[in-house]
Amino acid sequence: MTRRAWWLAPPLLLVAGFFLYPLYFVVRESLTGDAWSRVASSGRFLDALGTTVMVSLAATAGCVVLGTFLALVLAFTPFPGAGLVTRLVDTLLAFPSFLIALAFTFLYGSAGIVNAAAGREVMGGFLYSPWCVIAAEITFYTPFVMRPLLASFKHFPREQLDVAASLGARPWRVFRRVVLPEAWPALGAGASLTLLLTLNEFGIVLFIGAKDVETLPMLVHSFGVVTFDLPAACVVAVIEVALSLSLYAVYRRAFGGGR
Amino acid sequence: MLVWSRGGRVLLWTIFALVFVPVVLAPLAVLVLAAFAADWNGVLPGAYTGAHFGEALSGEEISSLSVSLQTAFLAGTAAVLTGTWGALAVRAAPRALRRIADAVLHLPVAVPSVVVGLGLLTAFSRPPIALNGTMWLVVIAHFVLVLAFAYSTVSAALDRTDPAFALVAGSLGASPWRVLWRVRVPMLLPSIAAAASLSLALSMGEVGATIMVYPASWRPLSVTVFTLTDRGRVFLASAETVVLLVVTVVILAGLAVATRRGAAKQR
What pLDDT is recorded for position B68? Predict the structure, then answer.
């Protein structure tokens, strides 16, 4: 061990003390009593697991489609004000996710703008359905797909597009055969980060407050500080961490971080 | 240029506007309208008022804003210092240790914030270290959550900087300390400022871990917004959110200007 390695001690000790040590306690607490069998056999947990995975997959798919489209237009068919739009999207990344949920209640609630504009009840129970959570997550996380794509498009040689087009390729074909192969790493990185973040998303679900849409982070919150069933909260937390960490391991393996 | 025909381009821009306006612009616009709404039963608010902002900037609400700012400042400063230190130290470490340390410092990104809160609650609610009911659990939770982002921001910038400058300074006889202080840290300043901005923004909007650990005496603005929403006071909640956004954006702009001035002075 060289002396220079010791410089790593302070930051690592802080992470160990404030992050790893608490995680160890979560695991230990989850082993008290019959918490594991209690949680595993409850329909509530299985429902939450299903909802979480379904919502996060659907939201990620939506973000990929929407983010790719918006990034393509901004990068390759720019219009006056495209720079401003890009900067607005960057700013959105710094905003809290609950903002979207709050806005959605005004837009799509039973007394919301859409119903008022239609003059009758058209939104039905949308606000309290999983679709609303998915839509809100797509709104909030689309910039996370757009940003890496825009960065990779910036270095994309324009001549390739012009040559392909001059040889008679249609825009769709140019996109599929020229742009997409180049954009693949950026798209993959953005998509897996979005999948990870939507899996862990809490603010949006909490603020929409739909009783029938319970995700794993909501379950942790509900067991932990609403019904004070700490062991059960810890069991759900351990499962969540296992899920997120395995996804994160795949992400790091695929997209660098291996220095 | 991907689409060459004028008609095709106009069609594409129309679709772009049709997607962008409802998805990105509408939520922001609606929130601002709601913050000024006296009542809202139609498509637009029936009447406008500044009363929500009056309430948002007084009494309990303003102290909640101050709690948020103090938490963001404490947690952000600690995270930026630790993250920068970590990014510099990781590069000096032997290869095997470097990989592990880099993974560990990135790790909190992958864990749900609610679980970070739950962990702190379980670990520090009993002796030897009982911190429950104090502001420190909130600050520590925010520190852990923003540290990984601060670290990866500075770390990515370090990957891009040319090591030749530090090597030349060293070869000219500057001590390692002098190289660090006069060459490496100044070159990193823009990324350190970016890390500070990101930390502040994330901390101001954090809900998941905060709601698990906050005591009644230390309630950040994000939790206050939730409590108000939960009680149906949505207009006041919107005004609070707008205050949160404006304060965040103003501080970020201030940081950006300060960094630009600092960079200009160095030249």
Answer: 95
Span of A32-36, A109-113, A249-253 with lowest mean pLDDT: A109-113
Cβ–Cβ below 8 Å for B2 and A77: yes
Q: Is residue A90 part of a domain?
A: yes
Predicted confidence at residue A258, as pLDDT, reads 44
Architecture of domain B51-266: Orthogonal Bundle (1.10)
Q: Give the pTM.
A: 0.90
Looking at the complex, report in whole angstroms how far the Cα of residue A104 sits from the nearest Cα belonging to chain B: 7
| Model confidence pLDDT, tens digit, residues A61-94 | 999 999 999 998 888 888 888 888 888 887 788 8
Give the domain CATH number at A204. Answer: 1.10.3720.10
> How many domains does chain A divide into?
1
Length of chain B: 267
**Strand pairing of B47-48 and B125-126?**
unpaired
Q: Across the interface, do B111 and A241 touch by the CB < 8 Å criterion?
A: yes
Candidates B84, B92, B81, B167; CA nearest to A3 is B92
Sign of CA dihedral B221, B216, B110, A65: negative
The count of other CB atoms within 10 Å of the CB of residue A187 is: 19
Residue A6 lies in a domain: no
Q: Where are the domains of chain B?
A: 51-266
Decide: A54 and A46 in contact? Cβ < 8 Å: no
Supply φ then ψ for residue A24, to 5 degrees. Answer: -60, -40
Instruction: Supply the Cα-derived Rg of chain A in whole angstroms.
Output: 22
For chain B, the distance separating the N- and C-terminal CA atoms, rounded to the nearest angstrom, is: 38
Does residue A123 lie in a domain region?
yes
Q: How far is A213 from chain B (nearest CA, A)?
A: 16
User: Which pLDDT tens digit goes with each residue over A121-132?
Assistant: 777 778 888 899
Of A22, A69, A258, the CB nearest to B120: A22
